[in-house]
Amino acid sequence: MPTEQLRYLSDELGKLREQKLALKLRILEDEQRPVSHFDGREVINLSSNNYLGLTTHPKLRKKAVEAIEKFGVGSGAVRTIAGTMSLHMELEEKIASFKGVEASVVFQSGFTANAGTVQAILTREDVIISDELNHASIIDGCRLSRAEIKVFPHKDVEACEKILKELSGRGGRKLLITDGVFSMDGDIAPLPALVALAEKYGCIMMIDDAHSSGVLGRNGRGTVDHYNLHGRVDIQVGTLSKAIGALGGYVCSTRDVIEFLYNRARPFLFSTSHPPSVAATCIAAFDVLEEEPQLIEKLWSNTRFFKEGLKRRGFNTGVSETPITPVRVGDAALAHEFSRQLFQEGVFAMGIGFPTVPVGKARIRTIVTATHTEEELTQALQIMETVAKKLHII
Ligand SMILES: *Cc1c(COP(=O)(O)O)cnc(C)c1O
C-alpha cells in the first residue's frame, strides 16, 4: 500500500494528468520495424531511432545468439572488477579504428557515457559552455561535475564567443560541449565554427554524436567526419542504442583520457558491464556499416522523399537537416491530439510539447529509417494530410 508520505506524488501526477501532460507508454508487441504492432494496432512506425533497421538485422541476431551460447547471458561484474570480457575490448578497438582515434571506452548507454565523462573530467573550479538544446545526459553530467555552467542560445556562435571572451582570465579549465545532431529539431551543430572557437580560447571540445552515429559522415562515422574535423575534437561520444541497433554509449579520445575514465567515470566503475550478446551485436553492427553502405544511402533517400512530401503538403518542418523531421503545430494540446488521431489511423509519431520543447513550439516528431518502403512513407504522408486537414493544421 502506498504510504501517506508519498501522497504528494499522486497529487503531482494528478496535476500532470489534468494538464494532459502525463505520459502514457505505448506497448510494442513485436519487433521494432517500419510497420509494427503497438497497443494492438498495426501502425507505420515513425518513432524509433532504429535508423538502419539493425535491431532485426540477421547478422546481428546471429552474433548475439552465438555470444550467448559461448559466453552466457551476463558479464557478472563491473568492468573494473571481473566484468571486462574479451568481447568488450574487441568492440572498443573496433570503434576506435572506425572513428580514427587512439582509443575508446564503452558505457552502458549514451546517457551514462555523457554524464559519466563530463562529471569525471571537470571539477568545481572549471566552467562549461553548453548549447541550450543539449541532451539531458549532458546537462546532468554538467551538474554532477559542479563546474560553473554557461548556456548559449541554440547554435549561436557569436553568443558563444561572447561568453568565452568574458571568461578570459578566469582560472580553471573550459569545456565547450554540443550535440552533433539535435534530437528534437534534427538540425546539425555549427561544428567548424565551434571547434575554431574551442581552439582560439583553449577549451576542451566535446561532441555528443548520438543521432549522427551510423547516420552522418562516411559509413556513419559521425559529425566530425561529416565536417572533416579529424584531430580537432578532444572527446566524441556516440551511442550504440540508435542506428547501431542494440544498447550502449562510447567515448572516443586519447588512450590516456580513456584510461583516466576507467579510473574515474562512475557508471564505468559502479554499474555492471554489457552482457556479451550486446557487445557481440555491436561488433557485428560496425561490420555492417562498412559492408552495407546502401543502408545509409537508403536512409537519406527516404529522408529526402519524406521531407519533400511533407513540404509539398504544406507542413512546417522547421530547421531539420537529418532523418529527424519535426512537424510543427505550435500548441501542445493540438500536437498530442494530432499524434493520437494519427495513431488511430495507422501512423505512430510522438507528440512533443513543453517541457521537452519550448512553449508554442510543440510538434510531432517523425523519424524515417532505411527500411521503410516508399509505399509505406507515401501512405503515412496521405494519412498525415487527411488528419491535419481535419484539425486545421494545414
Ligand atoms: C539518445 C541520446 C542520448 C542517450 O543515448 P542512449 O544510448 O539512449 O542512452 C544521448 N545524447 C543524445 C543527443 C541523444 O539523442
What does this structure look like?
This protein is of the alpha/beta class. The protein folds into two domains: 4-30 and 293-390, Aspartate Aminotransferase, domain 1; 58-291, 3-Layer(aba) Sandwich (Aspartate Aminotransferase, domain 2). Helices cover 43% and strands 16% of the residues. The protein contains 14 helices and 13 strands. It has helices spanning 7-18, 58-71, 86-99, 110-121, 136-145, 157-166, 191-201, 223-226, 255-264, 266-270, 276-291, 293-312, 332-345, 374-390; strands at residues 35-38, 41-45, 103-107, 127-131, 148-152, 174-179, 204-208, 235-239, 249-253, 324-330, 347-348, 350-352, 362-367. Strands 3-9-8-7-6-4-5 form a seven-stranded mixed β-sheet, sandwiched between helices. A three-stranded mixed β-sheet has the order 1-2-11. Strands 10-13-12 form a three-stranded antiparallel β-sheet, covered by helices on one side. Helix 2 (58-71) packs antiparallel against helix 11 (276-291), helix 12 (293-312) runs parallel beside helix 14 (374-390) and helix 13 crosses helix 14. The longest helix is centred in the last third of the chain and has 20 residues, at 293-312. The radius of gyration is 22 Å and the shape is globular. Pyridoxal-5'-phosphate is lined by residues 109-111, 114, 135, 137, 179, 183, 208, 210-211, 239, 241, 249.
